[in-house]
Amino acid sequence: MNKLFRLITIEWLKNASYKPVIVFGTIYLLLLVGFGLICSQSIPFFGVEVDLVEQGLLEFPQLWNFLFYMAGIIKIFLGLIIMFTVTNEFTEKLFKQNLIDGLSKKEYLISKVTTIILLSFISTLIVYLTGMWLGYKYSTQTSFETVYKEIYFVLGYFLKLVNFLLLFLLLSVLLKRIVLVLMSFFVLWVVEIILRIVEFKLFVERGSENFQLYNDYLPLANMHKLVDYPFERIKTISQITQSNYVFETPWSHVFLSIGYSIVFIYGTYLLLLKKDW
Amino acid sequence: MSEVLLVNNLDKQFRRIHAVKDLSFSVQKGNVYGLLGPNGSGKSTTLGMLLGTINPSGGEWEWFNKSGTTTETLHRIGAIIEQPNFYSYLSAEQNLKITAKIKNVAFNRIDEKLSLVGLLERKKDKYSSFSLGMKQRLAIAAAMLSDPEVLILDEPTNGLDPEGIIQIRELIVKIAAGGTTILLASHLLDEVEKVCSHVIILKEGKSLYCGAVNQFLSAHGILELGSNDTDKMISLLGEFSAFGDTKLNGNIIEIELNENVDPVDVNAFFMKHGVVLSHLVKRSQKLEQQFIDLVRHE
Lengths: 277, 298
Known about the structure:
- The complex is a heterodimer of chains A (277) and B (298).
- Chain A has 277 residues and is mainly α.
- Chain A has one domain.
- Chain A is 73% helix and 3% strand.
- Chain A contains 12 helices and 2 strands.
- A two-stranded antiparallel sheet of chain A has the order 1-2.
- Chain A is globular.
- The model of chain A has no long low-confidence stretch (mean pLDDT 88).
- With 298 residues, chain B is of the alpha/beta class.
- Chain B folds into 2 domains: 3-216, Rossmann fold; 220-297, Alpha-Beta Plaits (2-Layer Sandwich).
- Helices cover 35% and strands 31% of the residues of chain B.
- Chain B has 11 helices and 14 strands.
- In chain B, the strands form 3 sheets. Chain B has a 6-stranded mixed beta sheet, sandwiched between helices. Chain B has a 4-stranded antiparallel beta sheet with strand order 12-13-11-14.
- In chain B, strand 1 and strand 2 (18-28) form a beta hairpin.
- The model of chain B has no long low-confidence stretch (mean pLDDT 86).
- The chains are: A mainly alpha (277), B alpha/beta (298).
- Chain A binds chain B through residues 6, 9-10, 13-14, 17-19, 92-94, 96-104, 107, 274, 276-277, and chain B through 14, 48, 51-55, 71-72, 74-75, 77, 79, 81, 83, 85-90, 94, 97-99, 101-104, 142.
């Protein structure tokens, strides 16, 4: 525990007054908290005024799905923090200096992973607290059972952030330049979309009715699936589609996200170990 | 004298370049070593391997009689590689705090080391506002933070102005006087000659010489001979085993010596064979000439 505290202190000393961290961190916090406050008002959604309270989005338990989904949209700001701090250490040969000063490659990795877990934890906690506040204010049902029925989303969101930030860590160590990291992330995103379209077309051609997308298990789609779209649960939409939404915990995606996280961490470790710095 | 560093058959093959070839040398406690070699001779690669940033292709080494490089070892070593590397957006003090945490050293040593390198007044200033000379001195302060037993410096005066160079050299001499073993990589012969007691000469990744500087200088020297009978003198040169390459310079012959020779013996030898010397000078070579010759011969 003492060792871990030393690594966290090192991370704090390195990054606390780094401008990108301050800027992106502030924007992120403002958006995260600000969004919670706006939720109680009606918001324009594709040109239509949507009253979230009226649409039942602030009702327990679907409130968790909605809030954690919306919070997930701005996770890129946390990604930018990881990207800026890590790439800077590689382009400025600071990682090399860390090694020479006697920080082991393993310790460096642990310090980064710990930072990622802490950031994800803080974000999850803020959204959770916002949810509790909004829920107890607007939800018609606040029995213990209803409030905690879909508490899975706390876990799902946390894993989603950790998974996402670990991917950025891996790309940052691999490519060392912000532009390249962003480009590779974009390429991965596009490739997943193309694969999705291809798979969808194949299914349509085959004419099978009940299909499951295997592409849902690709890294980015899997993250998405951890906290899926909440929009089917909006009253108006469910009336139009006549669907009767039943929530099921996506365990396969949970386990896969843990698997991906391990792969990202191990991949980063191998890069640190095998390359010459 | 105890060994601080022992390197055996160290080897590094990059994709295209064989940077270090079967390199062996040792570093004794308390001496100032120069790792001397032209650019691209494998100095930085060697130091990188010994400090754990570059993976070796072969060979082994011992720091303080322990195999390889561990984090504990690194805490007993202070090192500066090429240019100083610091967080540009942090102050001198904040940067040293990071180093102190990494090296498990208390923060109260920071001021002491900053004053050693003359940067105490600038400790709150951002690193990015420092001149190159100040950056280099801060790097030395960081390296000295844990009071290391060995200080490794890789081209510490590279790119500095004359004043900066003098400051750094004085600092090195000061640190060496405190008993710290120093390993200084440089391509500047003058620098090595001024501050080092021992020298390891590298060329294309191979060690050509490892030992004391003064031995290196006196082991080889030059003898200048002139006489009344130049032709006869030349014909007699082969009988002296200590004589190496010769060069005729007007009526004067310059002879490189392979081992130490007493000029008295040389004079007596030629007298015996009926040659009277009109010119007999023994001079030691400058390190520069010595180095150039050594590198060219191999």
